[in-house]
């Protein structure tokens, strides 16, 4: 029996978008459609520009997700942590809404006695373990990212090791941007096996532009298409059973 | 819902500050900061019954999840698994309300420095202790997860290994919640991240390797990970003594902690391993505590004995504590 599906876009980038739609606006749109956006800012050394940091955090905040700036060496662990945190956050949001429904508005986790919180936590944990997950990975492959791509690939393989240990089903797809003549290019179609990714970043069409906004918009389209195929109404992101309270 | 792990802002408490829980109205006086981690800051504090460790976080989910685990552990019979749980509450400060919990204060020495100071047999002995605890944890359906020296401490003398951070503890059968690459079999490509006993046992093997390679090492892209680890073992005289146990754990050959423990016990103390095994068994009868306590831990065997003694003693304190709570 399925408990519904969590939908995430995981954006891996190293800097600022410089063309097309505002990525933060696109993230807000995604959130409205029940898709969470997590963002990882990848840097090799030194620091990311203030503007870059703001964009990374801004996209995640608007997209209802989690963000983290990280050095390439720590990428693997960060990718899995951000994904997991993003899932928990989404589930928690839904469970909180349910709580309000049961206990009246203005009831958040903090208003519950600490003893009761444990039960909510257990429900959230359990859903995180058992819900299905659709995750679209969007990789910035602009020129400056080139040297980081082997680590990105390793981190994604590692992510599948983490997620495949869950009870729920996982489906991954991978897109990169910028691409020739369009915003994003599909590197891997929906599959439960992210390991098949090996080598897909080898042939790259990298350029100077970073169209993060248009890329997010296309990613959203790809998601919509998938949801239509599965004949699931877009706005019913998650179905929950009664949280065992 | 505006939570970023990049800016983990936690509530700061200062020495001398009085913390009074919003729900249970218990009061604690902050002595000093002990450390901080991903989910919060830990302080040494004074409660009505003496020294305690108090952990303040920013996120109620993370705190309440750790409390869940501590409460589960409290139900296990025998030597306490992890710090005993004391209280959970909220603190109201001028910046806002923060969740906190209170646990037993564990005083001791970090694992790696301890091993560097003591004779090499302490490597095996502490791991034998750890495996007994893991066995009891696994029996109640939990897997430790993020097992590494930073989450362990050696209390005493008499020396006893104890767990500190239970944040990664995961229900058996689920996906491991939290891990550290060096100790994670998934990172080394030697197994899944499913929570099962062999996951923890892999980490125990890596802790043993870490004891001889304190600065750790990365996975080499050039060689097969298992070969790399095997080399690290045979190149070290002390690890070599435990080679079959460590390799067995790395390959997932032990399906339960007791099997690995048995293999390790037979290798601790090259001269007279059988006697040591007997000593360990005998201490499980809690009657002879007093007499032995005065003995100097000059001989290896009595040191082991004391190690187990502290276990029984802590259990006693714990029982007394709960009696106190009930009245
Ligand atoms: N019960 C305790 N007794 C003594 N010190 C503790 C205790 N719990 C935690 N600490 C100290 O606080 C530090 C951080 O706590 P930890 O629980 O590991 O944080 P996190 O889970 O957020 O990483 C530890 O490394 C240790 O030094």
TrEMBL record, chain A:
Record domain VWFA: where = 1-91, 134-245
**One Pfam family, short name:** VWA_2
Q: Which SUPFAM superfamilies match?
A: vWA-like
Q: Give coiled-coil spans as residue ranges.
A: none
What the entry lists under InterPro entries is as follows: VWF_A, vWFA_dom_sf
- The name of this protein is Ca-activated chloride channel family protein
UniProtKB/TrEMBL annotation, chain B:
Q: Which domain of life is it from?
A: Bacteria
Designated name of the protein: Serine/threonine-protein kinase
Q: Where is the stretch described as Disordered? A: 266-298
MF (Gene Ontology): ATP binding; protein serine/threonine kinase activity
Quote the InterPro entries the UniProt record gives: Kinase-like_dom_sf (IPR011009), Prot_kinase_dom (IPR000719), Protein_kinase_ATP_BS (IPR017441)
Question: Transferase as a keyword?
Answer: yes
Residue spans crossing the bilayer: 303-324
Extent of Basic residues compositional bias: 288-298
| UniProt: ATP binding residues | 55
Domain named Protein kinase: which ranges? 28-327
Record lineage: Bacteria, Bacillati, Bacillota, Bacilli, Bacillales
Keyword set, alphabetical order? ATP-binding, Kinase, Membrane, Nucleotide-binding, Transferase, Transmembrane, Transmembrane helix
**What EC number(s) does its UniProt record assign?**
2.7.11.1
Top EC class of this enzyme:
transferase
């Amino acid at each position: 029996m399925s408990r519904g599906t969590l939908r995430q876009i995981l954006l891996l980038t190293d800097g600022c978008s410089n063309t097309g739609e505002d990525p933060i606006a696109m993230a807000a749109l995604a959130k409205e459609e029940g898709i969470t956006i997590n963002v990882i800012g990848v840097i090799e050394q030194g620091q990311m520009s203030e503007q870059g940091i703001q964009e990374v955090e801004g996209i995640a905040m608007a997209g209802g997700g989690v963000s983290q700036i990280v050095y390439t060496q720590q990428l693997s662990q960060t990718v899995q942590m951000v994904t997991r945190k993003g899932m928990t956050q989404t589930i928690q949001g839904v469970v909180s809404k349910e709580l309000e429904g049961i206990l009246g508005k203005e009831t958040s986790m903090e208003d519950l006695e600490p003893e009761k919180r444990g039960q909510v936590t257990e429900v959230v944990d359990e859903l995180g373990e058992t819900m299905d997950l659709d995750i679209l990975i969007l990789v910035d492959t602009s020129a400056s990212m080139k040297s980081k791509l082997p680590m990105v690939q390793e981190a994604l393989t590692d992510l599948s090791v983490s997620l495949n240990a869950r009870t729920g089903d996982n489906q991954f797809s991978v897109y990169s941007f910028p691409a020739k003549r369009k915003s994003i290019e599909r590197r891997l179609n929906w599959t439960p096996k992210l390991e098949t990714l090996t080598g897909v970043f080898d042939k790259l069409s990298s350029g100077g532009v970073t169209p993060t906004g248009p890329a997010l918009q296309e990613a959203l389209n790809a998601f919509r298409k998938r949801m239509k195929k599965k004949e699931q109404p877009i706005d019913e992101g998650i179905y929950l059973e009664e949280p065992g309270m | 819902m505006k939570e970023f792990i990049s800016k983990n802002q936690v509530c700061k408490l200062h020495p001398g500050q009085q913390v009074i829980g919003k729900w249970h109205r218990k009061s604690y006086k902050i002595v000093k900061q002990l450390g901080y981690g991903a989910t919060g800051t830990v302080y040494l504090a004074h409660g009505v019954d003496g020294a305690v460790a108090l952990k303040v976080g920013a996120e109620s989910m993370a705190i309440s999840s750790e409390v869940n685990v501590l409460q589960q552990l409290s139900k296990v019979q025998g030597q306490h698994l992890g710090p005993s749980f004391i209280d959970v509450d909220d603190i109201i400060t001028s910046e806002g309300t923060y969740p906190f919990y209170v646990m037993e204060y564990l005083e001791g020495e970090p694992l790696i420095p301890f091993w560097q100071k003591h004779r090499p047999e302490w490597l095996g002995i502490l791991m034998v202790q750890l495996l007994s605890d893991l066995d009891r944890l696994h029996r109640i359906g939990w897997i430790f997860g993020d097992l590494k020296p930073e989450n362990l401490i050696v209390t005493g003398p008499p020396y006893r290994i104890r767990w500190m951070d239970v944040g990664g503890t995961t229900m058996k059968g689920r996906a491991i919640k939290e891990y550290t690459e060096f100790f994670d079999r998934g990172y080394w490509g030697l197994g899944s991240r499913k929570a099962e006993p062999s996951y923890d046992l892999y980490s125990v093997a890596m802790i043993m390797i870490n004891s001889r390679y304190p600065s750790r090492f990365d996975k080499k892209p050039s060689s097969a990970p298992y070969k790399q680890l095997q080399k690290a073992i045979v190149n070290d005289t002390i690890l070599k003594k435990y080679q079959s146990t460590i390799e067995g754990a790395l390959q997932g050959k032990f399906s339960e902690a007791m099997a690995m423990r048995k293999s390790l016990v037979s290798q601790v103390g090259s001269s007279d391993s059988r006697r040591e095994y007997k000593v360990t068994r005998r201490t499980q009868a809690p009657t002879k505590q007093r007499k032995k306590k005065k003995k100097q831990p000059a001989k290896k065997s009595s040191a082991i004995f004391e190690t187990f003694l502290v276990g029984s003693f802590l259990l006693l304190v714990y029982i007394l504590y709960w009696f106190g709570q009930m009245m």
